[in-house]
Amino acid sequence: MEKINSFKSAMQQLDNAAKVLKLDKEILAILRQPKRILSVSIPVRMDNGEIKVFQGFRVQYNDARGPFKGGLRFHPQVDMDEVKALAFWMSIKNAVVDVPYGGGKGGIIVDPKKLSKGELERLSRKFIDLIYKDIGPHVDVPAPDVNTTPEIMAWMVDEYAKLTGRFEPAVITGKPLSMGGSQGREEATGFGGVEILKAAASARKLKRGASVAVSGFGNVGSFFARLAAKAGFKVVALSDSKGGIYAPKGLNIEKVEEYKKQTGALKGYPGTIDVTNEKLLELPVDVLVPAALENQIQKNNAKRIKAKLIIEMANGPTTPKADVVLHRRGIWVIPDVLSNSGGVATSYLEWTQNLSGYYWSREEVLKKLTAYMANAWKNVLAVQRQHKTDFRNAAFILAINRIAEAIRARGV
């Protein structure tokens, strides 16, 4: 596949929306660069006694609407352009779902699977040692992302408390319940995505029991698949990093999950056809859900996609050139900044509970999340119809207008 620069793609999306808005040059210039970039070298004592130095980043993109907010990922392919793009998209996502946050993102260049638990904890704590003066409940609020977990967030909150002399759970979201985490947070991204799926499928006039293929069967993809099936959709294909399975008559998600726990993979599940990740994207389904990596859908394979509706659950799975092809073909692409915003909406609810010291039940959290997703869909759909544009551009127009209003109110 063609190597895509994620930040260039993000800036193209910004420019597309700015043209429609006739955005002030001064505000456009502000939005084209992160407000602050933290780059740190992280020395860690390994189990064999040696010191190994890892590179870490935190990009604080824009805080016009509130504290920087975004995840931390541990991955060997983390690079600055990727993190900048993800931080920008977080600024957009928070404005789309209308929570009072700006956008940020962080990462460490590491394969966490090659570290012991002790090494992983020391790496996580040392990262906080190096950036703790630049984060905080009202400054920058990190969260889990690729290869980071509630346990890692708990270590970071504890390290922040040791350094500052006070326990402030609102400094990081996505924590275990015992550390001030929120009920409903684990399934929030998948839950929010299915709320968008239901609304978009209705607007697209898809038949009841429409077929769904999910590329990426991790935490988000598995919750999405399970909840989509419960909502009456027919999930016919799933994939993970090792490959995928296809069953035109539908899959029992709980049984597939049990099979994966036992075997470590989806491939070989009885009664299904093995498919590659690439082939899954091109299956004859009503709904395609890219829930894995960036840039899965590019110009060439966009021509072969048969789905009528794409619900983006990964960050940046569709390139700008692919967007043009899909829009021309009449395929609706509901962008990540809307579809997977349930995670950050619930992070906001967790943050709010931490600050107030008052906690809600799972039912209350998911009820509030449903309202956020419904409102976001309604607003994006209104902009899409007003400007007769694609859904991604509509979401960016909505978000950038909100961010620009905040910048003007603060004074350029």
TrEMBL record:
GO MF entry, a single one: nucleotide binding
GO biological process: L-glutamate catabolic process
Residues at the active site: 105
Keywords, ordered alphabetically: NAD, Nucleotide-binding, Oxidoreductase
InterPro entries in alphabetical order: Aminoacid_DH-like_N_sf (IPR046346), Glu/Leu/Phe/Val/Trp_DH (IPR006095), Glu/Leu/Phe/Val/Trp_DH_C (IPR006096), Glu/Leu/Phe/Val/Trp_DH_dimer (IPR006097), Glu/Leu/Phe/Val_DH_AS (IPR033524), Glu_DH (IPR014362), NAD(P)-bd_dom_sf (IPR036291), NAD_bind_Glu_DH (IPR033922)
The keyword Transport appears for this protein: no
Site feature location: Important for catalysis: 145
Membrane spanning residue stretches: none
Pfam families referenced in this protein's UniProt entry, alphabetically: ELFV_dehydrog, ELFV_dehydrog_N
Assigned protein family: Belongs to the Glu/Leu/Phe/Val dehydrogenases family.
Name of the protein: Glutamate dehydrogenase
Organism, as annotated: Candidatus Doudnabacteria bacterium RIFCSPLOWO2_01_FULL_44_21
